[in-house]
Input
Amino acid sequence: MSDQAKVTNHEALDSLRTAMVIFMEKAGKALDEVADAVRRTRYWVQDEQPARYLAEKKRAERKLEQAEQELYSSRLSTLEEVSGEAQMMVRRARRRLEEIEDKLRVLKKWGRDYDSAVEPLARRLDSMHDLVKAKYPKAVAELARILSVLEEYAATAPTPPPPATGD
Output
């Protein structure tokens, strides 16, 4: 066995270290973006959309009341053609209100189920985040230390004797 290490290319180790640093930066940004998207989506499903549809529901309820009042008024005036148009407006307003209520029910279900559906996946991202933010930096530091040791070793290693020429 030889007493000397045969390191032929420590540039490859340096390239690996550089690639790991680049990967850590890109993966860290991607993981942060995913975590932000999860938070934004939760807010959108649980807060933003329900508030929007509750406001739309109030408007639709007012339009339905108005259409019903117009239908009632047209019935009192016994105008047949106005009554048909008023009935159509009531049906449209009622259908719109039902659509909004359906959307609110779906949003309520999504809001209730969001955390149970997303949290297991988000926990997987947490372990990846830990890997990228805690363990990879240690690996990069260890590679830097190894490179330093190898460079010191290469500087102190004896130079091989020149090949003998056959004189």
